[in-house]
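Exercise 7. Predict the joint structure of the components listed below.
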Amino acid sequence: MIAAAQVTYTAAQAWSDLAQIGPIVAVTVALLVAVVVDLLLPRGLRGPVVTVIAIVGLVSALAIAAYRLVNGYGGPAYFRFVSGDAFALFFEMLFALIGVLAVIVSSSYVRRRGLYEAELQVLTLAAIVGMMSLAAAGSLVTVFLGLELLSIALYVSCGYNRIELPSQESAAKYLIIGGFASAFVLYGMALIYGATGTTVLSDIATRVTSDSAGNPLLLLGVLLMGVGFAFKVSAAPFHMWTPDVYQGAPLPVTAFMSVATKAAAFAMILRVFNYGLGHLGPEWQVLLAFTAAASMVVGNLMAIVQASLKRMLAYSGVAHAGYILVGVLAGGRAGVAAVLFYLFGYVFMNFGAFAVVSTLSGPAGDGDLYEDLNGLAYRNPTLGVLMSVFMLSLAGFPPMVGFFGKVFLFTAGISAGWTWLVVLAVLTSVVSVYYYFRVLFHVWSPLPEAPVRFAFGPVRGPVTVVLLAGVFAVALGPLSGFLLQVGLNGAAPLLSGR
Amino acid sequence: MLSAIWILPALGGLIVCFLPRGAARVGAILVALAELALTLVVAATFDASHHGYQYAEQASWIAQFNVSYHLGVDGLSVWLLVLNALIGALAVLATPAAWPRASAFLGLMLLMESGMAGVFLSVDLLLFYVFWEAMLIPAYFLLWLWGEGERPNYAALKFVLFTLVGSLLMLVGVLGEYVFSSAHTFDLPALAAQPPSPAIQFGLFALFAAAFAVKIPVWPLHSWLPDAYMSAPTPFLLLLAGVMGKTGAYGMLRVLLPLNPHPVNWWDWNWVLPVLAVIGIAWGALLALAQRDLKALVAYSSISHMGFIVLGIFALNAQGQEGALVQMLNHGIIVPALFLIVAWIYARTGSRDRSVLTGLAPAMPVLAGVFLVVTMAALGLPGLNSFVGEFMTLLGAWQLSPWLAVAGCIGLILAPIYMLRLFQGAMYTEVAGPPDHPAEGVVRKDMARGELALIAPLLALMFVLGLYPYLVVHALPALGQGMQVLHW
Amino acid sequence: MLSDYAPLAIYAVIVLAVVGLMLTLSFVLAPVKRYRSKLLPYESGIVPTDPARKRMSVRFYLTAMLFIIFDVEAVFFYPWAVILHQLRWYGVIEMFVFMLILLVALAHIWRKGGLEWE
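Solution:
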């Protein structure tokens, strides 16, 4: 079978294919150089140099993706196993951006916590390569490859602070649950392959029509993959791992996971479900609608009772996964674009909030209780005001980006007839205001009498990130038309097949 | 021109936040007065014979969803803008220089004023919503960080959660209008021209009405109001009670009715709201009767008066809605004056308890005189402003249903009872026996010149609007868009 | 639609039923003779010398893992060799890139002390 297919592969084709995955190549090269540099340089220099290399690699990936997006984007490459289309480029830019933020925050964090710097950056780069491959995937094989690459790198990152018990617990839990999820996804893929005879998504899209709804192989495949995907986006009822893993992992890793893994998993869902299995919409929509509703309710209610900021943000992440699923369910160009827009905006508000919390970390540990934020607005007005901006944006107040994200998601939802889900989302987001405002309450409450557990050190890196994220979180609101257009362009490749 | 009306206080507010105390107060006063001048220029040059939005500004904002940055004024909004600027200026002036964290307070007040100006200016539904929510953020901080009483945090959170339930439901309504109207736009005139089917309108109406009814508030959604008013600091209370409640009524006239003229499916919503309004009139008046605390009394009377406005709006005829608009302005003038007087009495005697305060008039005759005028205005004495509005409202309501009008009169009957009892008790009852109330020992001095200057514009307006309501009413026929209900 | 999943649900019920039935039946029907020789780990008569659960040095696992990583990646050489004629120079270069990446990994393991026993 394999030998029968005549492969002709010219040099020109090779170059063109390589250019299609340019951003991935840039990050991979940075990763390899970083590993070698980590081996050769004297110990004191390794950390800073690796951080610089990582930033250079990520920024060049960002530049390549932006350049390709502006100057006419590509299409399938490597026999349709990956794609350099606008959808992939959108996510590659997103991941490169998150990567830069994460590298800056963790560089300062590991120094303050006395951890080894270089390897965490290398792991972050590896995870980003996985995420980019996932977003660019044109085949179930590539999807799984990217999924595993990102997961394995993150399992190690979670346990990076290995002398602390919570960090170990986090890594172990994430490994086991993540392994389960991967197995579900892989089993589902195998069944889809069995039903269609191909792993290439564009072929699956043409072979699976709405007539094939009765095929039990397909249905079982959809069911298993849906469960696996729900694990990965941490949607209820498959969210149990999220709070424990987020709480135990080192703070920059949590911040990175909370936005990047979620975005990658949604890229995967959009590629596989909305594009590959688009004709089976009615089948997977039933599953996702249930998960979305459960996520909103469970996430928002559980977030209320948390005492730890990390756990609160973990549950709020579950709730946001529920909102984003509304856009996935709505589908179509408007729905997908809304998802892309929301993911992009979510990065700034959520990562910004985590970056603020990360400035509290010192040799003694991570300060992640509400009380640790007491009087932040008076201790450090910039951080205090921006933390308020992030919370208001997460709660969906205009003119912040979170509001416009919700507007686009809900418009798509109502247009596609998911009004009940939108009403549920709206009512549960009223609940969310309660716990986001609790953060505001601590940030603006008067300075505590007792000495604070965690003082704010002079941390330039995270503050830069916070400022950057704050500016974007506010500015992307009024300028949302631009980002929405990028999202609409990114959504187009998913719809051309049908 | 119109952009400046909301950008000026917004920018000014942001700058004032970072100024030192003294400069902040001067800056805030200058910004507020400039804002007032700006709105007065707009009102003076307003063309009452022109149909359509005036001074309109339109620019594409989010083109993919036909959202535009569209501002304009018409007969509905022009005087509300002036009211907002006037009360905003008074509120800033009423903030003493020694106020705690004065810069941030004044900055947030200006930001809130900016948000409300934006609500009155927007001609685009999404823009309207953005301003609607944006004014809530400074209001929350003002109520919480500067709140009085034991639990300002509780009052602020209750206020925000109540309003948010309403306004997020309205968000669904806003998006629903876009999806279900064949116009597929957020532009108000275009939406009003192509309303969706009555069954859809029935649902959308409920979503919008929830937001506006909480803000006004309409019975039974009023329970945030006493808590919020009780813990609000006086300068902020002027804006909150004087203007913010009006945004709800304005929303009903601007958005709710024109976009959903026939909300009829299982029942007719247009009959539900006037009934609730009448219940609110009686409920607020009865509870006002039962209050001992002056501030609470005014707060409950406010619920009663806002009921008249809703009743007028849902009379669905020219007299009723004209009356409602006039009443919105009247209430926006009278309630700030009442709260100022209550605050001054409290500052002099250290008490707001009606049973303790007696015989203050001899010690402070000017305050007693001012209080008398405001009391008479509040209970609707002919010749003062409130009478005109209430009369027109009830005239409109009578045409809708005589029963509703008669029931609404309960409020008119109860208002003199609680207002006069309050006034007489506090000012003229003889001090019985040896004075042993907690006010003893406090220096009782009459109104300062600054205080008199502060309330003078409000007193003047009570007479002007009472004797010459044409000033406001003549602008009304110049409406911005075709309104199926308003046959002016 | 949800009803499309009915066959799956029926299938799941059948699977559970069959498994449950088999386990129950074997539990009920199988003859159980409890005497000393029958309860020994090896029924065939070999006498166990020490407990089955032994603690092994964690280094074995590390080495085994490293071996598996390189072993699995070496498998890629087989399909590559089959179509090398068609891939021509591109295939050769690509494989060198692949081996370079492997070498970096090996160097990393080596320098970080992953191959040392002590």
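Discussion. Residues 165-196 of chain A form the longest helix (32 residues).
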